[in-house]
């Protein structure tokens, strides 16, 4: 399938997931929304679950190229800024909110798991380079670092509904890397 | 109103919010679900928004007594464990997921804001005591500390749908307090 057609299908899928929740998402609805016929969709994706997983993992809307700035601090700041950029888009916020409600739906929960596992696999590059540079303290737990940082952005923007304030990414990263608690540190 | 009747109304409100979203929540529905008649509900709460806000802020289901263990580290670990306890309850997870989707709905967004502002007011006690003890580094940003810690729990449990692992609360707090990154530290 041509990449442009595929992206159109993925974005239609994510839009329907955001608007109607996983239960309201159907392959038929995606066909209608994307203008691609249902038979074609079923030729590429055997089920709604397969389509939803591919849309989450491969849509350009949620794309993640792990940053490579030359330092762990720089990479993590760029990563947090990327998450901030994503969660500022109403379309992405709605998809994330739908995933947050996945607990009651095993199929959506598996789909969300696949998405976040894929993201974490990509983020590993940041920590592997840090390890090679000797930047990463021994015993560091990369998933905990990522969950603290991304979680602070979700909490502030999606739950608390408050602005992040100046230099949020740098302040959060410095706090987690054991720097000064919440105050800016020179680069 | 008797506290027990009030709590029944609050829990009915949160259950309907979790099940049907804010748009599907009605004072009529709460009357039916709680067995309290609609006129009585309107005597106490002038609108659905007022009822939802009170239910979030005052329901025992979401109660928060800020811990007082004698140290900032101990208080934060207890706070994270409290958040973990809450987010392990399906009923609470569903309410939080509904709030995460508030961006598109001004009234629910205001309600979520009121809830999290109330929680943060209560959590201030932890940081005030730490400041008095000289436990809190100058320039520390309490809201950032809380958002990192609570956010890590939401991210791991609601989005990533992965287990927290051993001693999650202590490891997260030690990392944020500038201790060893992710490895346990003696109490």
Would you kindly provide a written description of the structure presented here, covering whatever features stand out?
Two copies of one chain form a homodimer. Chain A has helices at 3-24, 27-34, 38-44, 48-58, 72-87, 90-100, 106-133, 142-159, 168-176. Chain A is mostly helical and 187 residues long. The first copy, chain A, folds into two domains: 3-58, Orthogonal Bundle (Arc Repressor Mutant, subunit A), CATH 1.10.10; 65-176, Tetracycline Repressor, domain 2 (Orthogonal Bundle). In chain A, helix 5 runs parallel beside helix 8. The radius of gyration of chain A is 18 Å and the shape is elongated. The model of chain A is unreliable at 180-187 (pLDDT under 50).
Would you summarize the structure shown here?
Two copies of one chain form a homodimer. With 187 residues, chain A is mostly helical.
Number of strands of chain A: 0
Task: Output the CATH topology of the largest domain in chain A.
Answer: Tetracycline Repressor, domain 2
CATH homology superfamily name of the largest domain in chain A: Tetracycline Repressor, domain 2
Instruction: Give the fraction of residues assigned to helices of chain A.
Output: 55-70%
Q: Would you list the SSEs of chain A in sequence order as H and E?
A: HHHHHHHHH
Q: For the report, how would you describe the main beta sheet of chain A?
A: none
Number of helices of chain A: 9
What CATH architecture of the largest domain in chain A would you give?
Orthogonal Bundle
Largest interface, with Cβ-Cβ < 8 Å? A-B, 52 and 52 residues
Termini separation of chain A: 45 Å
Number of domains as seen in the coordinates of chain A: 2
Q: Give average pLDDT of chain A, whole number.
A: 91
The Cα radius of gyration of chain A reads: 18 Å
Low-confidence stretches of chain A: 180-187
Backbone structural class of chain A: mainly alpha
CATH uppermost class of the largest domain in chain A: Mainly Alpha
- Give the assembly state of these chains: homodimer
Keywords (chains A, B): DNA-binding, Transcription, Transcription regulation
InterPro entries (chains A, B): Homeodomain-like_sf (IPR009057), HTH-type_TetR-like_transc_reg (IPR050109), HTH_TetR (IPR001647), Tet_transcr_reg_TetR-rel_C_sf (IPR036271), TetR_C (IPR011075)
GO molecular function (chains A, B): DNA-binding transcription factor activity; transcription cis-regulatory region binding
Protein name (chains A, B): AcrR family transcriptional regulator
């Amino acid at each position: 399938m041509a990449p442009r057609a595929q992206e159109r299908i993925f974005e239609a899928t994510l839009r329907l997931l955001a608007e109607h929740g996983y239960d309201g998402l159907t392959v038929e609805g995606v066909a209608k929304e994307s203008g691609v016929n249902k038979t074609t969709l079923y030729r590429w994706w055997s089920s709604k679950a397969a389509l939803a997983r591919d849309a989450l993992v491969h849509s350009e809307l949620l794309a993640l190229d792990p940053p490579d700035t030359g330092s762990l601090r720089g990479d993590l700041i760029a990563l947090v800024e990327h998450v901030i950029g994503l969660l500022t888009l109403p379309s992405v916020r709605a998809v994330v909110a739908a995933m947050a409600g996945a607990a009651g739906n095993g199929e959506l929960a598996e789909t969300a798991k696949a998405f976040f596992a894929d993201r974490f696999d990509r983020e590993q590059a940041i920590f592997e380079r840090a390890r090679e540079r000797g930047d990463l303290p021994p015993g560091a737990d990369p998933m905990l670092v990522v969950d603290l940082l991304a979680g602070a952005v979700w909490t502030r923007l999606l739950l608390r509904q408050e602005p992040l304030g100046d230099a949020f990414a740098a302040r959060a990263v410095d706090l987690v890397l054991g720097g000064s608690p919440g105050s800016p540190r020179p680069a």
